[in-house]
């Protein structure tokens, strides 16, 4: 059997596990809701349970180690989760050493967005690039930066919080407390919020019909735009302009060979592409304008595949 790694994607909502082969292919998969409010002991017990469940699907599998992508802030070198806001009671938790003791396998820890960047770089849309910026546009905006073949970690592994670049002085306040963050104006949450404000329950709009008269999400906006809805198309154009501004900043900061866009809103990449490219052409210096912006290829498994690569390609 080929080299295999056991990979985990630890989210505040869902805990996902997979056995991943050395070609980036998933051999087994399992998931469960994360006990995010129950503290580290409960979640570590969940990880151990999922490890057993996943490995039982491939009885002769012998993982070389465990790679885990987790929400930051975290220290990947020390293997410590510092204080992730989506996991209650996690403060300076030595997750890597605790899992290593529990499961008797070497453990590598990485920020979840960095793990997804690694997945796309090694096995997805960024294969062959020396430098890459991965941007996930979903509930929030996160990212990972690979420069000259290495993840950019910065002090204590805190680099790459691209969702909190300030790109405007206006708009709603971000969850971090600031105004004008990339995340606050261009995330799927922000897109849905704008759509909800433009419509009302029972108004007969495509957006409210798709949302079943509840709050409109970014996904609903994409679906409505696909059907030709004028309001949704206008929202998509505005969303793409904000993304284009953020991507232009990333081009100037990191000068990557490629920008890879993932997350739930990348489902609408075909609708967003032209205005994103137009904004980059308007705002980027000429030397940066030919850098491609492409959709992610690994979908929701990018983080798992990238976490496995911490072991398989070490």
Automatic annotation (TrEMBL):
Organism phylogeny: Bacteria, Pseudomonadati, Pseudomonadota, Alphaproteobacteria, Hyphomicrobiales
EC numbers on record: 2.7.1.2
Matching PROSITE patterns: ROK (PS01125)
Entry GO MF terms: glucokinase activity
Protein name: Glucokinase protein
Keywords (A to Z) from UniProt: Kinase, Plasmid, Transferase
Gene3D superfamilies per UniProt: 3.30.420.40
Broad enzyme group: transferase
Similarity field: Belongs to the ROK (NagC/XylR) family.
Domain of life: Bacteria
Pfam families for this protein: ROK
């Amino acid at each position: 059997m080929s080299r295999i790694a056991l990979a985990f994607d630890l989210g505040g909502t869902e805990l996902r596990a997979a056995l991943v082969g050395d070609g980036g292919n998933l051999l087994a998969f399992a998931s469960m809701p994360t006990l995010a409010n129950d503290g580290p002991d409960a979640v570590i017990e969940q990880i151990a349970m999922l490890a057993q469940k996943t490995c039982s699907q491939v009885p002769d599998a012998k993982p070389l180690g465990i790679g885990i992508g987790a929400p930051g802030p975290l220290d990947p070198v020390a293997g410590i989760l510092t204080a992730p806001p989506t996991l209650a009671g996690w403060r300076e938790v030595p997750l890597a050493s605790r899992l290593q003791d529990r499961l008797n396998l070497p453990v590598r820890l990485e920020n979840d967005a960095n793990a997804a960047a690694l997945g796309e770089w090694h096995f997805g849309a960024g294969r062959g690039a020396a430098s890459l910026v991965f941007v996930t546009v979903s509930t929030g905006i996160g990212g990972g930066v690979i420069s000259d073949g290495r993840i950019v970690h910065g002090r204590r592994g805190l680099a790459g919080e691209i969702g909190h670049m300030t790109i405007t002085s206006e708009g709603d306040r971000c969850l971090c407390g600031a105004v004008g963050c990339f995340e606050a104006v261009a995330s799927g949450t922000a897109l849905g919020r704008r759509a909800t404000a433009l419509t009302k329950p029972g108004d007969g709009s495509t957006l409210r019909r798709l949302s079943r008269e509840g709050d409109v999400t970014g996904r609903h906006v994409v679906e409505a735009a696909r059907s030709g809805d004028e309001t949704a198309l206008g929202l998509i154009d505005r969303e793409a302009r904000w993304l284009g501004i953020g991507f232009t900043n990333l081009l100037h900061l990191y000068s990557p060979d490629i920008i890879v866009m993932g997350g739930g809103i990348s489902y609408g990449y075909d609708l967003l592409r032209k205005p994103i490219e137009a904004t980059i052409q308007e705002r980027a210096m000429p030397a940066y304008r030919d850098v491609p912006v492409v959709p992610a290829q690994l979908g929701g498994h990018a983080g798992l595949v990238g976490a496995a690569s911490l072991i398989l390609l070490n």
